[in-house]
Amino acid sequence: SLLKGDVADGEAIYKELRHDGHYFLHLRIRHIMCLLAYMAGDYTRAESFGQESMLLLTSRLVGSVDLAMVACFNGLASLAVYKQQQDKPLSEIRSRWRLLSRARQSIRYLRFLSTQSPQNALGLFKLLEAEYFATTGKHSKAVKAFRISCALFSEQRFPLGNGIGHEQWARCLMGRESDHERWAEHVREAHRVFREWGALVKVGLLVKEFPLLRAAKTKSRESFYLPDSSV
């Protein structure tokens, strides 16, 4: 509901829960805050929340759905921070290596889960794998994994995964002249999925980031007000 514009004080809820022994709710709050921070592009906070939720989850397993979601977003956040730190000095290479190591750990969890519970984990595994390939320069492998993950999410009617899949697929293609048309397709598809899901905050962030969506919106408004020449 936060993606749809509702407001909640997650930190206050978390402080209340951590002292009351509500382990599962404690985990859920950390995971949701990781997810929301990632969706909003606040990758440093997402990575911090992701690490906390991953540590909680691996200390007391509560089910494959929870592990799959936590592992996926923990890995996505780690890779996002890794990319942000590409221009860091050599003295900080170790911290970047640690981020890749965390992403690989999440991939291992998801690979195992995808064999045990493919309905819950396979799409998330392929999404994180795709993002890892894109981050490490394995373009053809990334595109193949994005294609599989988006097809699975669409089949399962999982708009959160489908929207992120197309959004990150678009970023994988961004700047590649030969892939410009497909890049635009995936930007529009991510926008459509999030809009139909009702994640209006995320829709606004996409429109702000990708000018082609603003151009399409303007064109749509203009066509609405043009007189019908057939009348």
Question: How does this model look, in words?
Answer:
The structure is a single chain. The chain has 231 residues and is mostly helical. Helices cover 79% and strands 0% of the residues. It is built from 11 helices and no strands. Helix 6 (118-135) runs parallel beside helix 8 and helix 9 (180-197) runs antiparallel to helix 10.
How would you sum up this structure in a few lines?
With 231 residues, the chain is mainly α.
Gyration radius, in Å:
19 Å
What's the count of strands? 0
How many helical elements?
11
How much helix is in the residues? over 70%
Largest sheet: none
Q: How would you describe the oligomerization state of the chains in this entry?
A: single chain
Percent of residues in beta strands: under 5%
Mean pLDDT comes to 83
Task: State the separation between the terminal residues, measured CA to CA.
Answer: 44 Å
Please state the structural category. Answer: mainly alpha
Described by the principal axes of the CA atoms, the overall outline is globular
Order of helices and strands: HHHHHHHHHHH
- Which runs of at least 5 residues are low in confidence (pLDDT < 50)? 1-8, 218-226
